[in-house]
Every structure is written in structure tokens, then in C-alpha cells.
Amino acid sequence: MRNAMRVCSTSFLLAAVIALQPIAASAQQSSSGAKESAFSFDVYGDSRSMMYLPYKQDQEAEARQLMVDMFELALPAKVAPEVVQKDVKLIYDPSNNELVQMVMPFMTASEVTTLTFDKGWVTEASVEDVKLLPGVRRTMFRLEGGDWVAREVVKDIKSGNTDFLVNTGDLVWWGKQGNKPSDNPYWKLVNEDVLKQLPGPSRKMREAGLDGRVFPAVGNHEVWNDSDVEGLLASFPYLKKFGVSDQRLIYTFDYSGVRFIFLWTGKYDYRDPTGWGATRPAYEEQMKQLQAWMDDAKAKGIKKVFISFHAPAFCRSGMGPIPEDQNPHKTIAAYAKDMDIVVFNGHVHTTEVYEVDGVKYLVLGGGGAEQDPILPGRTHIKMPDGYPLDQYWKGDSPKEDYNFLHVEIKPGQPTTFTLNRFRPWSATPFETVELFK
Fold first, then answer.
1. 171 and 245 share a domain?
2. SS3 (DSSP) at 434
3. Average pLDDT of the segment spanning 152-180
């Protein structure tokens, strides 16, 4: 790899050395685990809950201001307060003066959302599209779904069934509430439900340089009202050894002869909801770094690579995929003839599975967030002729589906992918599905 990176310009060489610093960290921690050995890990994404609001009736003004802040993500600052005042209805239980329900607009003018609350947390959300499907409410969020995912992945670690967890982003709603991460209700929930429940890393993991059990790609919600990513770095301080900082949200590591790469697709922009708007670093620099990490893996004889980033490279529902001019697929697929490459995405809150040009892609957005792709008008978005087929729904409309993926690696054998899912509406709510069979 170093031979491939030689350049004539002294300034360009300096920039390259700086850019490749995390590779040095990866090389140091991978030396003990360069030979591939059996292990497993779990993957899930978009595991954040919906919002938490001050729930006493005398706190209504504070709750409404938080709703204004939320609506400003998609509306002009002058319009958001008017919409909240006019169209958001808060309903309190007269027996205890606690918030029990909220009715508000959703993503379009014809969608009406009804949310139920318990002690400030949304426990269920349903949507009626009065234009496309009047009179029918579709449940798109149940708190029990994300709770089930969290319990199951924790159980997998505790039982020794899996070594660590990979998250494709959006662990929390935002960083606005609370003066510091330990006061933020969303990071507190992650810590209580997942991080504090996990044992410390195994000896094998520590020898490979892994000092934690959870490795996330950064989603757009991690940086929403937390531009310095204090919550992320406080919850996962061991990421700093891989070069992660408020200015660099990408990293890599090797484990048991397998390479893991984590990229960042950027914050949310309602004008380009799946665009690769990252600036830490920007798309072009990330692609150069991705190529360097892939070249290094190839030079080391690494045969399996797992790449995680938040917005999906391929997707047929919801907000759709990353635009073609920002899509890393061509960069990734160029290595598919030499390595077994799997990409984990999220952002669109559903589950989709693709195999394109020798690369496996999984959209794993069923970790607990509201599943808006099940709503009318978002189940099937218009795609060009010849667009890759989704192997999960296989043309059917997405439904409410909370899940996580178990990945099993054995030297000399194909990697196995087992999806564990919970469908609250189904006669058989708990199932396991083998993917890529």
C-alpha cells in the first residue's frame, strides 16, 4: 500500500501521511489477529426511540418549544412556531396532568400522526393519510420493538453467541436535551439499555485492540444539536484510538483477519435527505481513504471486508438511496473480485437486501425507530428500469419489522447471515430468516 501511495509532491505526501494516520492504528491492532479465525457479530441500525418530552401539563410551553426545534429541521424558522401552535395538539390526563397523547402533522400535509406517551416517552405512533388512505391508521412505531432488539443483542453478547455489535447509526434522537451527555435522556437510554448491560471486551478482543463491545457508524441524529459529538465520544471513548474526533468521523479496525470500515454520510438536509453531505471528512476524501484502506487490506491478504455507513447505497422505499454522483458503489465494487465485501446501511427505516456487482448490501433500519416506509406513498418509490431487486420484500410493500442481523464467520466457509425479527402484527411475531440463500 505504501508503494501505491508514493507521490512526487512533498505537500501531497504530507497530506497523505496525515490522512492515513488511522491506518497506522489499524495496523498496530491487527497484527495479533491477522490470521482469520471463527467469530460472530450482530448488526442493527436506527435503534433510536422517538422523542422524549417534558410531560407535566405545567411544562407544556417547554414541550412545544422542543417541537418547534424539531419542526425547524424541515421548515423555515419563521414557519415552525406557527405550525406547532396551530396544528400540534397536546392532550393531558386530567387525573394526573400528564401528557398522554399528541396529534400533529407528519411528513406531508395530508398525514396526521397520533402519538401516545408514558412519562414523556412516545410508546406508539400511527399515521393516517387523509388523502391517500382516509380512515385507516397505520402503526409505524412501538417502543416495545426497539426494546426487544436491545434486549436480544445484549443477550447475544452475554451468552457468548456473538463477540461485538455493529450499529449503522442513529442511536439517539438528538443532543439538544441535557447540558451534557450524561443528562441527555437519549444517551442515558442507550447506556442503560445496552452499554451498561454488556460485559467488558474479551481477551481476544483486547489483544486485537478492541476496548469496547459496540462499534457504530455515525448517523445524522448523532450530530443533530451535538456538532461536537460529545454524546458519541462519551459513550464510545475507545473510538478515539482509531482517530475518531469531532473533525473525523470515520475509522477502521481488523479483527480475526477481517477488516471493518466505518464511514460517515453526513447530517440531514431535507432538500437532499439521502445525500452524502459529510464534511468530516468530505465525500471525495472519504473515497480516497476508503481506497487506501481497501488497498491495504488487499495487500495484507484480507479476504473479508465489512463496510458500514448510514445512508443506503441501494434502496427502493422511503427516502431512497444515496444519489448516484455521491454513491460509493463503484469504488467498493472495484474490489469485489479480490474480496468478499458486505455493506451495512440504515437511515431508511426498513429492511432491504441486495447483491450488486458481487457486493452484498443490507439496509438495516429496523432497530427501533419509526418505520415510515410502510406508509402510503413511501412503500415503493419510482426507480429507473433495471434497478437492483430487493431480496427481502421481493416486491411486496414493507411492513413493521424490528430486527437485528447475526453474522457468522468461519475460515474457508461462506459467511452466514441470520436475521432475527419481531413483527408485532403477525401471527408468528418472532422468526429467524437466512439471507443470501
1. yes
2. strand
3. 97
